[in-house]
Design goal:
There is one protein chain. With 352 residues, this protein is an alpha+beta fold. It has three domains: 2-48, no CATH class; 70-125; 143-348, Orthogonal Bundle (MetI-like fold). The protein has 16 helices and eight strands. It has helices at 2-12, 22-48, 53-56, 134-142, 145-176, 182-191, 197-210, 217-221, 228-238, 243-251, 256-267, 269-285, 288-293, 302-306, 317-338, 340-348; strands spanning 66-68, 70-71, 80-87, 90-100, 103-107, 116-119, 123-125, 127-129. The strands form two sheets. Strands 2, 3, 4, 5, 6 and 7 form a six-stranded antiparallel sheet that branches. 23% of the residues are buried.
């Protein structure tokens, strides 16, 4: 009950207890507008992913997934779509044979006779709520998207684990050891943030090819492990850990790796959680680097596989929306489990 009341108490609290201040109104408007700005595109994508292909491009668009009602008419090989037709002030339900410009050829679906020509402005489609589950089933069964999904999970998981481990060790050395040039090394690492990605992309690809990791998932993972942002985030947080803890562990004959593994890492958990969220977002949504490194379809990640639905003359939006919405689920799950560490981790990096 307290967990339910806390958000309500937070959203309804006011600057002054006796009356509502203008800043309260502006805060509520800002929160409401921000929520809509984030939520509406996600809801729209989710509902559109359940629409048939023809309904996604229909204008004016509809919010709920609907599909045209079709009926088998004698004398025609394929089912015909049903339309509400207004003729001489009378509305009838008829089937469309074909459409030529601004005229449509319509027949009575019960007793079809010679088609009659009507103005398209006087007809409206007969629709019903329809959930197009094939938008999800077809890519997963016919287009190897389960393989793409497995590759993305592998790349994201392994890259995140290695990113946490490698950058935590670098941050530990830069924050708790004193050696000649330690500040210079840290400045050089941070200065790499100013190097554009396009500058290092070609040399990085040549290195990947040279070590034989082209068209390999490890070629996607290894070049992205070291991150100056991660080193900065973890180093600033580790500076808040008292040096006396490390000295006490050394007195107890603890090795340096034992100090790092059993003392520093547990105390740095909030910052590691923040970095884990960032790393999952970076790896899961990465498109350009996997597109450059990977050539074989069986090695494609999810984002590269989505590009297969975009051709030169047509785009299969129903498949793209379905798989895009599906790709949001792992990131959302990670964020839900780790979001409580975000405030603690980011706030701690600015201390000391």
């Amino acid at each position: 009950m307290n967990n339910i009341m806390n958000p309500i108490r937070f959203l309804t609290r006011r600057r002054r207890a006796e009356r509502i201040d203008i800043t309260d109104i502006l805060s509520w408007i800002w929160l409401f507008a921000g929520t809509l700005a984030v939520l509406v595109p996600v809801v729209w994508a989710g509902l559109s992913s359940l629409k048939p292909a023809a309904e996604i491009t229909r204008f004016p668009p509809t919010l709920l997934p609907r599909a045209a009602v079709e009926q088998t008419v004698s004398g025609f090989d394929k089912p015909l779509s049903l339309w509400q037709v207004t003729i001489d002030g009378e509305t009838r339900e008829m089937a469309m044979v074909r459409r030529i410009g601004l005229k449509a050829q319509m027949v009575d679906p019960v007793s079809p006779q010679k088609p009659i020509s009507v103005d398209v402005k006087s007809i409206t489609p007969v629709q019903r709520l329809t959930v197009a589950t094939q938008n999800y089933a077809d890519p997963l069964t016919r287009f190897n998207f389960l393989t793409f999904l497995k590759n993305s999970v592998f790349v994201t998981f392994v890259a995140t684990v290695l990113t946490l481990l490698v950058n935590a060790m670098a941050a530990f050395a830069l924050s708790k050891y004193r050696f000649r040039g330690d500040k210079t090394v840290f400045v050089i690492i941070i200065s790499t943030l100013m190097i554009p990605l396009a500058v290092v992309m070609v040399p990085a690809y040549l290195v990947v090819v040279g070590v034989g990791l082209a068209d390999n998932l490890w070629g996607v993972i290894l070049p992205t492990i070291a991150s100056p942002t991660a080193v900065f985030l973890l180093r600033q947080y580790m500076l808040t850990i008292p040096d006396e803890l490390i000295e006490a562990a050394r007195v107890d004959a603890a090795s340096e790796f034992c100090i790092f593994w059993r003392i520093i890492l547990p105390l740095t958990a909030p910052a590691l959680a923040v970095l884990a969220i960032f790393s999952v977002l970076w790896r899961w949504n990465d498109f350009l680097w996997p597109l450059i490194v990977l050539n074989s379809r069986e090695n494609f990640t999810l984002q590269v596989g989505l590009n297969a639905f975009q051709g030169e003359f047509s785009v299969q939006w129903h498949y793209i929306l379905a798989m895009t919405f599906l790709s949001l689920l792992p990131v959302t799950i990670v964020f839900v489990f780790l979001q409580k560490y975000i405030t603690t981790g980011i706030a701690g990096t600015g201390m000391k």
